[in-house]
Design a protein that fits this description.
Length: 694
């Protein structure tokens, strides 16, 4: 459409139109002058008329060129089609670039056209921007364009392709805030907005407010500050805000105190994840522990804490018991951990157990080192700790003395090489060999599935637990191995009773063939210590040595103690139907510490006594073949040899030597068992030295 100008309106035309009179001509010229002065301004003020093509045509005639650049190489292109569809389409070029009317350009001109001045139309936004963190270094059109894009092609704010639309804010703000945007892109908010397409999902300005008013994160005025964070998040999470306002945390915030958490204290500001994911559930204890250090320490030492740290995310975490947002003191009747509500809270996982009143007195945050919390649990811990330290100290010193004595003996030539040629005697029966293999396999399974839970914080524990498929799968294997242990333990006791009571065979409870410690064992111990210290010759032993009897009794005692406490933890409902809940706390300590004593003793001391001392290194196959040479038998068990020879019973023990196949199987199985045990022993040492044992 051709624009009507004063010249068009007032000029005469050829044809039949009459020539106006002087008076009417003067009136027409006055009217034309008024239109020239007021017409464009009135049209722009009312927004009713698009800018005249002739106003912009001259500018676009040069600038609608993709190759147009200034001396610095910056593009000066303004595409007419894009400008016509932009938010500024109703403006003339000279409305923003007023200097274009007076400055001659292009390059050979007297000077460049001044950049656009946004304040002419957006003064209110400019004032806010100047007081914000974005305007701290001054406000200019380039600053505006940094967020809103090229003003010549700026889409309307309601359009999806607007630079400040919810979707485009991610890229737009991310140009400067790359680290924050990387976190946001991995968040549930971004998933809802960019993947699920929920227009109501928060983008940058929904949480931080308009970029014109954005305040530094440390400022109290910031929408995401400690003061305003609940209100900001509560715009979407209204139900959660209502619960939080009633909680102990919310009450602290309402009182103006800063020692309680707000939304961003627990949830990451940008990389917020769904709280139901395993990754987030594993973080709950440490997040809560940043304020509740003592409770975190006790939770960390509990079964819940250790299993959770090893990846068993179905186990109870802080929010499962205390609720995520409506947490209240236990004294509050509304609290989920109030005595009146424990059956409901604990019953979410322990439906059968909560039927026993005693189970509800179990302490999930037990601290065995604090006698004020429970004196019975405290004394169980003291006794188990004393037993651990006593056994490890005694045998640690005993075996170090033994090691140095045998090394010196080797260097002196006191231990000539043993010959494998000659008659062999039977040391163990086939049944005893089979039972020993069963003991080894079940014990290694119990150790390899239990020690990662004992030392859950050790760096090797999660890796070992992952080999089993996680704590749940490891627990199944652990219980199967426990059943096998109960079977051989019960079978052994029944066998001893059958032989001693029914068949009237003597020697099980006293004498040289008995595993019961006797005065002769004390004398042998003292004599051996004298030998270690170069004070006397090595003592002479009978069927069993004092350390072998201790090994046997350690297993006997350990199976009984670990088995009873393990059954208590396996069937807590049965236990707490007749006993108080603190018994489970005591059973957990006894089970854990006795297991450490058993595994540590077997892998460190029993392995040394049997396989790793210089006389038998690297492995003694006798326990797997059941046979040894007569020469070695006379050397190691001289008293037994003499008694058998005197009774003419030695020849009945003669047996063929083990075959190559039997020796190969013995060494392969033995080396694997010893290697696993030594690896676990190293893991125990690393955990103890690193402070991972609590």
């Amino acid at each position: 459409m051709k624009r009507i100008s004063a010249g068009n309106l007032c000029s005469s035309s050829s044809g039949s139109r009459p020539t106006p009179s002087p008076t009417s001509a003067r009136a027409a010229w006055a009217f034309c002058l008024l239109l020239l002065v007021l017409g464009p301004a009135a049209a722009r003020a009312q927004g009713a008329t698009a800018p005249a093509p002739s106003d912009n045509a001259k500018c676009l005639g040069c600038h609608d060129d993709a190759s147009l650049k200034d001396d610095a190489g910056h593009s000066l292109t303004v595409q007419g089609a894009m400008f016509a569809a932009s938010a500024h389409r109703k403006l003339a070029c000279t409305d923003c670039h007023a200097d274009a009317l007076s400055v001659r350009h292009p390059r050979q001109s007297l000077g460049p056209v001044a950049p656009a001045a946004c304040a002419g139309c957006h003064q209110e936004e400019i004032n806010k921007l100047a007081a914000s963190v974005h305007g701290a270094k001054g406000v200019n059109p380039l600053l505006c364009a940094g967020c809103h894009g090229d003003p010549h092609s700026l889409p309307r704010g309601s359009e999806p392709n607007s630079p400040m639309s919810a979707v485009n804010q991610v890229r737009n703000c991310g140009h400067c805030h790359q680290a924050m945007m990387a976190g946001y892109l991995s968040s549930e908010h971004a998933r809802a907005l960019l993947v699920s397409g929920l227009a109501s999902a928060p983008a940058c300005t929904d949480c931080h407010g308009s970029g014109h008013e954005l305040q530094p994160a440390a400022s109290h005025a910031a929408a995401t500050s400690f003061v305003h964070s609940p209100e900001t998040c509560g715009k979407c999470h209204t139900g959660i805000l209502r619960q939080w306002n009633e909680s102990a945390h919310g009450m602290l915030w309402q009182q103006g105190r800063k020692d309680g958490p707000v939304c961003t204290s627990c949830h990451q500001a940008h990389a917020i994840k769904a709280p139901t994911t395993g990754e987030m559930r594993q973080r709950f204890p440490s997040d809560c522990g940043s304020c509740h250090a003592k409770l975190y320490a006790s939770f960390h030492d509990s079964f819940h804490g250790k299993a959770g740290a090893l990846g068993f995310t179905a186990v109870a975490m802080c929010s499962d018991c205390h609720t995520p947002h409506h947490n209240l003191p236990a004294s509050d009747p509304r609290s989920s951990v109030n005595a009146a509500n424990l059956a409901t809270t604990c019953g979410k996982c322990h439906q059968r157990e909560v039927r026993s009143a005693g189970f509800l007195t179990f302490d999930p945050h037990a601290d065995p080192r604090d006698p004020k919390r429970n004196v019975y649990v405290y004394w169980v811990w003291v006794l188990m700790t004393a037993l651990l330290l006593g056994v490890f100290a005694f045998f640690g010193l005993h075996d170090l003395l033994w090691l140095q004595r045998t090394v010196v003996g080797k260097l002196r030539g006191e231990y000539p090489p043993r010959s494998s040629v000659g008659p062999y005697v039977r040391r163990f029966t086939g049944t005893e060999i089979f039972l020993h293999v069963v003991v080894i396999v079940s014990f290694l399974l119990l150790a390899a599935t239990g020690l990662p839970l004992k030392f859950a914080a050790a760096p090797w524990a999660p890796k070992l637990m992952a080999l089993w498929g996680g704590p749940h799968a490891a627990g199944i294997v652990h219980r199967i191995a426990a059943v096998v242990t109960f079977a051989y333990f019960g079978g052994h006791i029944l066998g001893v009773l059958f032989q001693s009571a029914l068949k009237r065979r003597r020697g099980y409870f006293w004498g040289p063939r008995s595993m019961v410690p006797q005065p002769s064992d004390i004398r042998a111990l003292i004599a051996n210590l004298g030998y270690f210290l170069y004070l006397r010759p090595a003592p002479r032993f009978d069927r069993w040595t004092y350390w072998e009897k201790f090994d046997y009794l350690a297993v006997f005692w350990g199976v009984a103690m670990i088995g009873i406490t393990g059954l208590m933890l396996w069937f807590p409902a049965v236990v707490t139907s007749v006993l108080p809940g603190w018994v489970l706390n005591a059973a957990y300590i006894a089970h854990s510490d006795e297991a450490l004593l058993a595994t540590g003793f077997i892998f460190l001391f029993h392995f040394f006594h049997t396989h790793l001392r210089p006389e038998t290194f690297p492995m003694d196959p006798v326990v797997f073949t059941g046979r040894l040479t007569l020469e070695r038998f006379k050397e190691e068990r001289p008293l037994e040899y003499q008694s058998l020879a005197a009774a003419n019973q030695l020849e009945r023990l003669y047996t063929p030597p083990p075959t190559q196949g039997e020796l190969a199987r013995a060494y392969i199985f033995g080396f694997i068992a010893v290697a696993i045990g030594v690896a676990l022993a190293i893991g125990i040492f690393v955990a103890l030295v690193g402070g991972y044992a609590r």
